[in-house]
TrEMBL record:
This is Acyl-ACP thioesterase. CDD domains: 4HBT. InterPro entries: Acyl-ACP_TE_C, Acyl-ACP_thioesterase_NHD, FATA/B, HotDog_dom_sf. GO terms for molecular function: acyl carrier activity; fatty acyl-[ACP] hydrolase activity. The keyword Lipid biosynthesis applies. It comes from Weissella confusa.
Amino acid sequence: MAEVYSMQHEVLYYEADVTGKLSLPMIFNLAVLSSTQQSVDLGVGPDYAHANGVGWIILQHVVDIKRRPKIGEKVALETLAKEFNPFFAKRLYRIVDEAGNELVSIDALYAMIDMEKRKMARIPQEMVDAYAPERVKKIPRQPEPDHMIGDIPVDVDQQYAVRYLDIDSNRHVNNSKYFDWMQDVLGPAFLEAHEPTHLNIKYEHEILLGDTVRSEAQIMEDKTIHRIWSGDTLSAEAHIDWTKSEN
């Protein structure tokens, strides 16, 4: 039976944005840090996966944010390998404060990719055994992110070149970069006046070194809807719910 893995972490200044709170990209980086460390401890970390010619890819994140921790705050990073079938895996994440209050929760859907063929691969049985998840025939679908409203024009868009340091060890853009692109296009005035409370992002197609991406968004009173394009290929869709910042 799968167990919750937990590690302690103090929020560092370079993990925060201008508000002094943990940034959206770093929320995802810290979540992945916890599951990567769990995998290493179980002997099935990135080195093991790559030696077997495979790597994890994220298909979707559904996130709820009650409060973003601040610089210097000590938190626990928790993760659980919840459900696996031969091709997909569901993993849960939480960021918890010192009093045990849940600050952030993430429901993540994963698959494995063949590193050479760049196609979906079967999850090695040794990895399934190591995590000891619930084994299921079918993993329930996560809700779809809101799609852009067809009769409303895009409010903002911006192009970005994919740089060498945007690429991770799976040889595609690190998933946290999508949140850089989605937030950056909104501009500092919007970001400093709003706090994210819920996010749903679905990754449609991987982005590689040398690509040029376009981030576009529709901005509403308490929600933004996003698309990330790589050329003419839709790479990700997302929506973010916001509340007015108290700062």
